[in-house]
Specification:
Elements lengths: L8 E11 L3 E4 H7 L4 H8 L3 E4 L6 H16 L6 E5 L11 H7 L6 E5 L5 H14 L5 E9 L9 H4 L4 E12 L9 E5 L7 E3 L4 H6 L10 E3 L1 H23 L8 E4 L4 H11 L10 H4 L6 H11 L8 E8 L3 E8 L20
Parallel strand pairs: 4-5, 4-6, 11-12
Antiparallel strand pairs: 1-7, 2-3, 6-7, 8-13, 9-10, 12-13
The chain binds oxa(dethia)-CoA (UT7).
């Protein structure tokens, strides 16, 4: 006789990994070509360095490396679906996920991309959880991967200092809502009235259908940073509160707040707004910058590898990005320590 009746179905996190490219770009290196300096960058953003891909590398290369590590960490060789969330796909068409799946030996699995800019990982988690709880998939590999160095104008000092390249991946399995590692509750939202605050103008159907000449600046990522900053603080705090209310958690129930690593000042403002001590805010933005859809799983992988997050700890994940989009998710950390290597420890591995 079972001693414990199974709870409702849920997606349970069972593997995690991060990966960053080898090349490190320091603030001082950026100051050699831009009108900026290390002190400005550190005090305004908290960033000290970031990793960037070499010419010839692409988002899928990072996604494959993170995905392979996450599968190994979970101890699984197959999944039913591969989701890549990215703003920098290898090409406009097809999606990046099928090629990533094939390179991981997962051809045959469902594979598709999710686009929600820097909120992509939380949207991807909700999508993966939906596939699992609806019975469509038993196991899902979710990868957040971005190479903003391929879309940011290297001479745009406001954006070139913020972004870095990287990937983070999780494996989710079918389980019950009271299993440690079960993801949910969720809060997801958007406000497209502000789509122009974060944008790449060229390359889509709108610009192409006008038949006009593409301006150099339209190929690059553009962000009205100051306005985005204010939206980010407000929306992240609102979303975090909403998911805590839905779950009946109090702020004090949160052991670790794992936000999208946009800018250290933003993260601290959100923590202050929520009444969370800043020490509970998980951050690695100093080492990797803003890595878009990769930032939450990279921050998680970093913290778990350092054993700063331990089994049983309660986590609040909150993201914000272009769209505008935002989202939050709660989970209790499962007993899957340790992550085999931190995201910066390459060992003998290569990305391919
Ligand atoms: O991941 C998706 C969501 N993204 C975010 O949440 C990012 C949100 N925004 C930010 O993180 C910040 O707005 C930035 C880091 C992008 C900029 O920091 P800020 O404190 O908002 O600066 P600002 O845009 O208000 O600019 C202040 C000054 C300006 O000079 P003036 O007009 O006051 O003379 C800028 O031209 O700082 C100047 N500036 C710089 N100076 C030195 C802008 N970038 C730089 C730079 N170095 N790299």
């Amino acid at each position: 006789m079972p001693t414990h009746s199974p709870g409702p179905p849920a997606a349970v996190l069972c593997g995690l990994a991060g990966w960053v490219p080898a090349r490190v770009v320091t603030n001082d290196e950026l100051a050699e070509r831009l009108d900026t300096d290390d002190t400005w960058i550190r005090t305004r953003t908290g960033i000290r360095r970031r990793h960037v891909i070499e010419p010839g590398e692409a988002t899928s290369d990072l996604a494959v490396a993170a995905g392979r590590r996450a599968l190994r960490h979970a101890g699984v060789a197959s999944v039913d679906a591969v989701i890549v969330t990215t703003t920098t796909p290898d090409r406009p068409c097809p999606a990046t996920a099928p090629a990533v799946a094939a390179r991981l030996g997962l051809a045959g699995a469902a594979a598709f991309d999710v686009g929600a800019v820097c909120t992509g990982f939380v949207y991807g988690l909700a999508t993966a959880a939906g596939l699992i709880t609806s019975g469509v998939a038993d196991r899902v590999l979710l990868i957040g991967a971005d190479t903003y160095s391929t879309i940011v104008d290297p001479l745009d000092r406001a954006n070139a200092i913020i972004f870095g390249d990287g990937a983070g991946a999780v494996v989710l399995r079918a389980g019950q809502a009271d299993d440690p590692g079960a993801v949910g509750h969720f809060d997801l939202g958007s406000d497209g009235a502000h789509e122009d605050l974060i944008t790449v103008t060229a390359g889509g159907s709108r610009q192409r259908s006008t038949g006009g000449e593409v301006q150099h600046r339209d190929r690059h990522f553009a962000m009205r940073g100051n306005e985005v900053y204010r939206h980010a603080v407000t929306r992240m705090a609102q979303s975090a509160r909403a998911v805590l209310d839905t779950a009946g958690w109090k702020t004090d129930d949160v052991d670790h707040f794992v936000p999208h690593q946009a800018n250290l000042r933003i993260l601290h403002s959100v923590a202050d707004d929520l009444g969370l001590p800043r020490e509970r805010c998980v951050t690695n933005v100093d080492a990797v910058g803003n890595t878009g859809a990769a930032s939450i799983p990279l921050a998680l992988a970093d913290a778990v590898a350092r054993q700063a997050i331990r089994p049983g700890d309660r986590l609040l994940l909150t993201a914000f990005g272009g769209g505008l989009t935002w989202g939050s998710c709660l989970l209790t950390w499962p007993d899957i320590q340790p992550v085999p290597a931190d995201p910066y420890d390459r060992g003998d591995e290569t990305a391919s």
